[in-house]
Structures are given as structure tokens and as C-alpha cells.
């Protein structure tokens, strides 16, 4: 793939203004649409969730998060344009399959069906990643990024690019659209600074978790650990519903919840469950002494106002002993 | 100390069909009910997303039942640092999840936390499907037009 676009090297990107960056990305879209023999989309910008990098708004627009024009990462911006442009290509293939003999009918049918039944990431993230048009678009963006990186390595500056005889200086068919009124006019901080600000603002989930449960007992360092904190009332409701565990019955359910069992500390009204290896099948095995200890611990955890249920647990436990 | 366990129990999960039994509904009711609760989803998307929802971790099932019956998702505490409210609002720099996506992401936070955290921090590039019956087709390339 041959891509030569002024403004899309790391050095040029760092030195470019917001409008220059947008112009370069529009030129990328122009060249990609030429190569893909499809319609060319106008790149528009929007302000919103910084994690929402962009979207293809069929049939004519690629919407790009304004923040990408102020960030230092060229790759993020290029990947987004390539990705959304690929959706435009899929759209063109669906509408004019006879113009795209390079794509087989089965693939176009899959894309058509996926266009009609698109899964947004906020509905099912796994299916979003694995649906046909996204798999294709993510794969395509990687090839564009790679192609540009190769060219970036062979070019040292915008001047070198402009002086190259092999470089077709195709005029931009559109001028870069102006920023929306009220858009940011500040000089964006670096990527690292943005990451730091984000960390300070949102917090690091892992650190936050540790701070939230400072009294978490020491665990086996070799085991994969994750902490799930459930409100005590919710755990009680799980027990009441017999929602977990096996056909062993109520007491078995409770021990399943106590599966890692040496202790389930109660802190600030929450019962904390420690899952060492979440994907394995948990098996609870107790001898009589351990069971007595667990019963005692369970009695401390469960609400005092339910003596009848505790009696039923003890009865069930005795049944298990008899087995 | 005895080497024989007093009892043993396996955990989790029961077969997916148990979820429907537990909810007291059949698959058809489940799918159509899902479509009513999340109107943005087509029937086919409801079928595929519904299939994933039937496999959620037992710990989440009561909350799912609560949502199914009331439309509200109870506060479930913290899952590797993320709460229901965090995922609903995007308060920790994630996208804002709808109920189905939220339950499925909580499920991943339980079963594969590292994968979930990577997904939550990953940028999203999406496609806005054409809406309505009068779909506007993209302009055809002049070079291709017959």
C-alpha cells in the first residue's frame, strides 16, 4: 500500500496546528477513498467522552473526537480515520457490490447483516469487538498504521516529502472544516501529561481498590487475586435465593460463597469474597473441625434476626455429615 | 483430622438453561423481554446478547433478576475498583454502559479482570447505523458508475 501524506509524520504532527492536523487527516481520507474506490467522507469533529475516538455516520461523515487533534498521538488519529473510512468502504461495498469484485459475496452479505444488526460496545463489548465489520475495520486500521510508519521511517521531514519526485501532490478536494464554535482553543498538554491528569482525576482502579479495602487480609501471593466486594444484604439475598452452588442444598450454597474460606471479613457493611482463580471450578472440602469453624463464622456474618434459617443450615450440615 | 470431606460443592456456574428456569420464563419470552427493555437492540442482537447474558456469573444473577423485574440495577459494591454507577456513567473514564453491557462487563470483571480492565481503557471506534427505512445510500464513485 502506497501512502504519502504531508503532515502525517511524528515530527510534522507535533509541529502542526489543530487545523493543519485536520487537513492532513482529511487528505488521508481522500487517498484512502481513492484506493478503496468509494465515496469520500467529510471529517467532522465532536467533543465528548475522550474514549470515544470516532464513528462513521453513514453515508457521508466521519466524526472524530476533537481531543485527538490536540493530543500528541498521531497513531490514534490515523487509526481512527482508517477505521471509520473502512466502515465507509463496507457501506459502499454493500450498496454497490458490483463495483467491488475484490470482496466476495459471502463477506458482503455478512457486512450487510452486521450493518442491520450492529452491536454497540455499551450493549455487549465482546460482541462489539468480534462482529464482522469491526474485525475487518480493526484489521484494516493496523495495516494503514503500519504503512504510514514505514513511510515515516523513510522520510525525515515535510520538506523531504514535498521534494520527492515520487510524491503525488494531490490537492485536497475539501478544505478542513473549521472547529465548532466553542471548541477548545488551548494548547493541548502532552500525552503523558494527559494520562497523568486522567489518573489524578479518575484514579487508578487498582490503587483505588486497595485503598477502599485497606484491611484486606494477606493472600497467597502466587494465586491470581481479585477482590469483589458485595453488600452484605446482597450476599444474604443470594443465599436466600439459592442462587449459587449445586444441588447439595442451602448449606452447600453458603459454603460455596465461603469457598476461599478461611475468612470472609466484614467491613463497612460489605462481605468481601476473594476469588483466587476465577476460571477454575471451585470445590469446597471441609473436615469436621473446619466445618465447625465455618459455621461459627457464618453465624457471625448472617443477620441475627433469622434464627430459623440458621437452624435449617445446621440441619442440612448434619445431613452432609451423615453422608 | 479426617481426610474425608464432610461435603463438597461445586461453584460456579450451573448450565445456562438454569437461568431461564430460575427466571421462570422461556427463551422466546427472554428475548422479546430484552427487546422491550433495551429498545435500541434489534431482535437478532437481542438473541445473541441474550445468549451471553444467560452465562453471567451466579453472583450477578440476582441483580439481573432485579433489573429484569424493576428496571433498576442495585448497587453491587466494587468489582476490581469499578461500581455499577461508574460503568453506567463513565465516571472512571470508561464508556457509559447500557444495562446489558453493564452486566456483561461486570461478568468479565469477575471472570477475567485483566481483560476487562484492558477493555475498559480501550478507545472505542464505532459505526452509526443508518436509521429508518429510507436509507440514504452513499454516492457512487463516478469512475465505477456504469
Question: What does this entry look like structurally?
Answer:
The complex is a heterodimer of chains A (323) and B (146). Chain A is mostly helical and 323 residues long. Chain A is 50% helix and 11% strand. Chain A contains 13 helices and 7 strands. In chain A, helix 2 runs parallel beside helix 3 (74-95). Mean pLDDT of chain A is 63; it is low at 150-191, 197-228, 241-287 and 301-323. Chain B has one domain (17-121). Chain B has 7 helices and 3 strands. Chain B has helices spanning 17-23, 27-37, 43-53, 58-70, 84-89, 99-111, 113-121, and strands at 8-11, 78-79, 124-128. Chains A and B meet through strand 2, helix 3, helix 5, helix 6 and helix 8 of A and strand 1, helix 3, helix 4, strand 2 and helix 6 of B.
Helices and strands in order, then pairings?
The complex is a heterodimer of chains A (323) and B (146).
Chain A (H helix, E strand, L loop, with lengths): L9 H6 L2 H19 L5 E5 L5 E6 L3 E5 L8 H22 L9 H12 L8 H6 L1 H23 L3 H6 L27 H12 L2 H8 L13 E6 H10 L8 H8 L8 E2 L2 E6 L6 E4 L2 H14 L5 H16 L1
Parallel strand pairs in A: 1-3
Antiparallel strand pairs in A: 2-3, 4-6, 5-6
Helix pairs in contact in A: 2-3, 3-4, 3-6
Chain B lengths: L7 E4 L5 H7 L3 H11 L5 H11 L4 H13 L7 E2 L4 H6 L9 H13 L1 H9 L2 E5 L18
Q: Enumerate the spans of chain A where pLDDT stays under 50 for 5 or more consecutive residues.
A: 150-191, 197-228, 241-287, 301-323
Series of secondary-structure elements of chain B, N-terminal to C-terminal? EHHHHEHHHE
Radius of gyration of chain A: 29 Å
Strand element count of chain B = 3
Q: Sheet bearing the most strands of chain B, described?
A: none
Largest interface, chains and sizes: A-B, 96 and 76 residues
Mean pLDDT of chain B: 80
- List the strand order in the largest sheet of chain A: 1-3-2
Multimerization state: heterodimer
- Coarse structural class of chain B: mainly alpha
- Written as H for each helix and E for each strand, in order along the chain, the element string of chain A is HHEEEHHHHHHHEHHEEEHH
Number of helices of chain A: 13
Strand content of chain A: 5-15%
Total strands of chain A: the figure is 7
Question: Which regions of chain B have little confidence, pLDDT < 50, spanning 5+ residues?
Answer: 1-17
Distance between the termini of chain B: 86 Å
Helix/sheet category of chain A: mainly alpha
Q: Considering DSSP H and I runs of 4 or more, what fraction of the residues of chain A is helical?
A: 40-55%
Instruction: Indicate the mean pLDDT of chain A.
Output: 63
Amino acid at each position: 500500500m502506497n501512502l504519502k501524506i504531508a503532515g502525517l509524520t511524528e515530527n510534522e504532527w507535533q509541529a502542526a496546528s489543530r487545523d493543519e492536523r485536520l487537513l492532513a487527516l482529511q487528505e488521508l481520507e481522500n487517498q484512502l477513498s481513492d484506493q478503496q474506490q468509494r465515496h469520500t467522507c467529510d471529517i467532522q469533529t465532536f467533543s465528548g467522552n475522550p474514549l470515544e475516538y470516532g464513528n462513521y455516520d453513514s453515508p457521508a461523515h466521519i466524526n472524530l473526537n476533537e481531543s485527538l487533534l490536540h493530543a500528541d498521538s498521531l497513531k490514534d488519529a490515523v487509526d481512527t480515520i482508517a477505521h471509520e473510512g473502512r466502515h465507509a468502504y463496507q457501506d459502499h461495498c454493500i450498496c454497490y457490490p458490483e463495483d467491488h469484485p475484490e470482496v466476495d459475496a459471502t463477506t458482503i452479505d455478512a457486512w450487510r447483516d452486521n450493518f442491520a444488526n450492529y452491536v454497540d460496545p455499551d450493549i455487549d463489548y465482546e460482541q462489539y469487538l468480534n462482529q464482522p465489520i469491526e474485525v475487518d475495520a480493526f484489521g484494516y486500521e493496523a495495516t494503514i498504521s503500519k504503512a504510514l510508519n514505514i513511510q515515516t521511517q523513510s522520510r525525515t521531514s515535510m520538506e523531504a516529502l514535498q521534494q520527492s519526485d515520487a510524491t503525488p501532490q494531490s490537492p485536497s478536494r475539501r478544505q478542513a472544516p473549521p472547529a465548532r464554535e466553542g471548541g477548545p482553543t488551548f494548547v493541548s498538554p502532552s500525552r503523558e501529561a494527559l494520562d497523568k491528569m486522567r489518573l489524578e482525576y479518575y484514579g487508578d482502579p487498582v490503587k483505588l481498590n486497595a485503598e477502599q479495602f485497606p484491611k484486606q487480609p494477606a493472600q497467597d501471593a502466587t494465586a491470581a487475586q481479585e477482590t469483589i466486594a458485595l453488600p452484605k444484604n446482597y450476599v444474604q439475598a443470594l443465599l436466600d435465593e439459592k442462587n449459587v452452588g449445586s444441588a447439595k442444598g442451602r448449606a452447600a450454597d453458603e459454603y460455596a460463597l465461603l469457598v476461599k474460606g478461611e475468612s470472609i471479613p466484614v467491613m463497612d457493611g460489605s462481605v468481601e469474597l476473594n476469588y483466587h482463580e476465577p476460571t477454575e471450578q471451585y470445590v469446597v472440602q471441609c473436615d469436621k473441625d473446619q466445618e465447625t469453624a465455618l459455621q461459627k463464622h457464618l453465624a457471625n456474618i448472617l443477620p441475627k434476626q433469622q434464627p430459623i434459617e440458621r437452624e435449617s443450615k445446621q440441619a442440612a450440615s448434619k445431613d452432609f455429615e451423615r453422608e | 483430622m479426617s481426610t474425608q470431606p464432610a461435603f463438597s460443592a461445586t461453584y460456579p456456574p450451573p448450565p445456562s438453561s438454569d437461568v431461564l428456569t430460575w427466571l421462570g420464563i422461556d427463551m422466546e419470552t427472554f428475548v422479546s423481554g430484552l427487546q422491550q427493555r433495551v429498545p435500541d437492540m434489534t431482535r437478532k442482537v437481542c438473541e445473541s446478547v441474550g445468549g451471553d447474558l444467560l452465562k453471567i456469573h451466579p453472583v450477578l444473577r440476582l441483580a439481573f433478576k432485579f433489573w429484569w423485574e424493576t428496571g433498576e440495577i442495585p448497587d453491587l459494591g466494587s468489582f476490581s475498583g469499578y461500581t455499577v454507577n461508574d460503568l453506567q456513567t463513565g465516571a472512571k473514564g470508561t464508556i457509559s454502559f447500557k444495562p446489558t453491557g453493564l452486566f456483561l462487563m461486570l461478568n468479565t470483571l469477575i471472570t477475567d479482570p485483566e481483560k476487562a480492565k484492558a477493555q475498559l481503557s480501550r478507545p472505542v471506534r464505532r459505526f452509526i447505523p443508518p436509521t429508518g427505512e429510507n436509507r440514504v445510500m452513499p454516492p457512487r464513485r463516478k469512475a465505477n458508475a456504469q
